[in-house]
Specification:
mainly alpha; 267 residues; two-stranded antiparallel sheet; 2 strands
């Protein structure tokens, strides 16, 4: 199947989500409550510290970080895990194997459509409400703004690859749903999605800053706020690309093993 043909899966996923408009209100409200709770925590922290900045970070920067590292960068990968879990448990994965398509490529195309829908229907309204309520900090500069867009694309691919690797575990465990909580806990801590790495103890920040999870939330948001110098921004982007290449290579290898395992189970 030609690469351009996968764009049809993206469009189909987007149109399918349009049919369930009530989920938009529930999802947007949930995101809004979540981001307001996080912002309330940071307002309390800065209020208790009675200072305009903590470790060189101001409250408006933390509010912006909470929005970037949360709803904007940390998209709903649970739907991907659920999709893989369902097709493996029901045996429908065999239908996909009979089709002239690459299943991980199909997942990427369809969940990119879900990502676009959720960004337009839920994330943008939430960002507007947060911006009008609390105010948001603009990018530190033109370079950091453009670099953030590149990091955003890297963040999407990194989270997709990590979630798909976890989803393929269903071929051995017969379920991927039970791993959702486990993966969510790791991501919440090590991606910097809840607390940025610059507030971590030095030893933990050093470890987390070199793991691929940090490229999902922490580094893109830090680049947007100008917490990385231009040279550091380029270096860490290169390191992120190396991590992504390694993870995608692992994904290709694991998918090959998963297909072989399915043939063995089928006799």
């Amino acid at each position: 199947m030609k690469t351009l043909a996968y764009s049809a899966f993206t469009a189909n996923a987007f149109q399918t989500r349009l049919a369930y408009r009530n989920q938009v209100w529930a999802g947007a409200f949930g995101d809004l409550v979540f981001i307001f709770a996080r912002i309330a925590i940071w307002i309390s922290v800065f209020g208790a510290a009675a200072t305009s900045s903590v470790d060189g970070v101001t409250l408006p920067e933390m509010i912006t970080y909470a929005l970037l590292a949360g709803p904007i960068l940390y998209w709903d990968y649970s739907r991907l895990l659920s999709d893989v879990d369902t097709v493996v448990r029901t045996g429908d994965i065999a239908v996909y194997l009979l089709k002239p398509l690459h299943y991980p490529g199909f997942l990427l195309a369809s969940h990119f459509g879900n990502f676009i829908f959720e960004f337009l229907a839920m994330t943008v309204p939430v960002a507007l409400i947060v911006g009008l309520t609390f105010g948001l900090v603009p990018p530190a500069g033109l370079f950091h703004g453009l670099a953030f867009l590149a990091y955003w694309a890297l963040s999407f691919m990194m989270l997709f690859t990590l979630a798909t690797l976890l989803g393929l575990a269903a071929f051995w465990l017969m379920t991927a749903h039970s791993l959702d909580w486990f993966f969510g806990s790791i991501m919440t801590l090590l991606s910097g999605g809840l607390v940025p790495l610059w507030f971590f103890p030095g030893w933990l920040a050093a470890i987390a800053g070199h793991l691929p999870f940090a490229w999902v939330s922490y580094y893109p948001a830090a680049v947007y706020l100008g917490k990385l110098a231009p040279l550091q921004t380029l270096i860490y982007f290169g390191v992120g690309l190396l991590w992504l290449a390694a993870l995608m290579g692992t994904l290709a290898w694991l998918w090959g093993r998963a297909r072989h395992r399915l043939v063995v189970q089928g006799g």
